[in-house]
Amino acid sequence: xxSVLIVEDDQHIRERLTCAVAKxxxxxxxxxxxxxxxxxxxxxxxxxxxxxxxxxxxDGDGIELINQATQFGSIESIVVTVFGDExxxxxxxxxxxxxxxxxxxxxxDIGESIMEVLNGGAPISPAxxxxxxxxxxxxxxxxxxxxxxxxxxxxxELDVLIYISKGLNYQEIADSLNISYHTVxxxxxxxxxxxxxxxxSEAVYEAEQLGLIHIRE
Length: 217
Prior knowledge:
It is built from ten helices and seven strands. With 217 residues, it is an alpha/beta fold. It has two domains: 126 residues, Rossmann fold, CATH 3.40.50.2300; 63 residues, Arc Repressor Mutant, subunit A (Orthogonal Bundle). Strands 2-1-3-6-7 form a five-stranded parallel beta sheet, with helices on both faces. Helix 4 links the parallel strand 6 and strand 7. Helix 1 packs across helix 5 and helix 7 crosses helix 10. The radius of gyration is 24 Å and the shape is elongated.
């Protein structure tokens, strides 16, 4: 059976997590704590297979526990927290967390999430995925700007690109911008060339990734 150390300061949630682990036939709780310092000692003493940790502890930061867990090499860390913002998410992942779950995750899902990590997966609450995507989109944009490789689209080409993203066809774009069908075609060819793509969907995706346009969902 795989051992799990739980470090969570909210007693009700800690009991909930303990029950979730206990009900799984392949997992057992080796120890639990509501404090950073005690959790650090338990981590060293028990060397569990999995650390289930909150980030906001009364006497310290859960990130430090994740950092310590990575020193052992074989301990996987899963964050269970109320903090769903990009800053907390990225700090935890950069520290070595292989899972990030919000506290509204169903009890039945906790055990399966732990098993997923042990089997090489990386369980992440759906609400967190958006922050990760945004982070990497921003990184891509920053890298492109730093390298001076951000495509230099003209204002008219950006106008055309925005209409493409809205699903308008060539004639509809021409009518909207009061230009000819063939001029729209020329603009789109230039957009494709500058973005290194070969289709409308690729052009929209790449432009949105680089921050050239912003698509509201």
